[in-house]
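Example A, followed by Example B.
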Amino acid sequence: MQCLRLTPLLVLVLVASLGAAFPHEGAPRKGCSLFKYKQVIFHEMKAAEKMQKEFRNIRRLDRNCNTRLLDRKWTSAHLSVPDRVLLVEAELNFTITMLQRPARPGFARTRQRPLAFLAQAREDLQGCVAPSHQPSAELGQWLQNLRVATETATQDNISCLEDYAIRHVFEVLGDLNCAARQEQC
């Protein structure tokens, strides 16, 4: 009698394990935890806004900056779910790198909360896209532009990249939210 009760349970376990072994295309991989980013927390948005304001108060942008290379004519809503995750991962890596640069004490304190939030989001993204996933042409070109901009950064233009990252932090948060929803944004 006990054997009959365990049979449905064993079948359920087998089906679940097979489903995990063969992930569905477009769905985040097992271990991907983006649910909490479906709605970016109000306090995190306020901390990012405060950081931007503090940054504008201490830094006047050099008009010789050319960060148009990183501007996009498309939105993350037009990308597949795996592409959205790749985009957010690249944006987070770039933004975190720029926020970790040496700064005045006031800005260093102000950026700590947004930096911690973005670092946690980056950690949560680990394992969300299969390593074999190839980005779309649009995303691939943008990722290439980002790589070129960061690899060729000099002391003269690094402040331009830092400014770009901080000005676009809300875009990064929006893209994170879009990736978490796994549907049209």
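Example B, a separate protein, is given below in the same form.
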Amino acid sequence: MKFLLVFDFDHTIVDENSDTWIVKCAPEKKLPNGLRNSYRPGHWTEYMGRVFVYLGDNGVKEDEMKRTMTTIPFTVGMVDLLGFIGENKELFDCIIVSDSNAVFIDWILKAADFHKVFDEVFTNPAAFSSTGYLTVQNFHAHHCAKCPKNLCKKKVLKEFLDKQLERGVSYTQIVYIGDGGNDLCPVMFLKKDDIAMPRQGYTLEKKISQLAQDLSPVECSVLVWSSATEIMSYLKVLVKE
């Protein structure tokens, strides 16, 4: 009996978007219009690359970025939920699949001492260059028309499950916890015994209910949450079963 918990990061584990939170480091805490308007749909990672160049050009150093990022608030109830998962690791494998980046997630999880809760983090690779600039790359290449070009979360999930099967690990149930439009693709991959947990009022919930209205509902169960305490209540029931 083992359960796989799959978490998105921004607006799910933390209550903000880590990529926009970093703008607090910019001069006057904002980006110039030209830079802000340079984003093209599906090309967020390239856009963030330009943001990091701007911060570097303005003398924003690693330690200042780190101080800023570790003030990002966790979602209501999330600290308790992650604590509960950490105490029950024999029952739960736990991964993050996120369109943020490895540096931000690592800083935030380590500062709160939650890095041990997660078995793997799948996100855009990032590092500081020799000149002290933060750089970010696309996570992978894929052929999914529904997803941003740097990351298809379904592909990540499928490859992870295949690798686990080779190791002899299969899961009684997958619990997918997320909020965004890019979480729909992996949710549509889930089977009827699995459960999707979209955050209330966010894009994923709206897209799932739109599918149901179009009479092509997702195959898995759906449980909407607004506080991570509700997720914890569900997991406690699973554990008792």
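On Example B: The domain at 2-16+74-127+147-239 is CATH 3.40.50.1000 (Rossmann fold).
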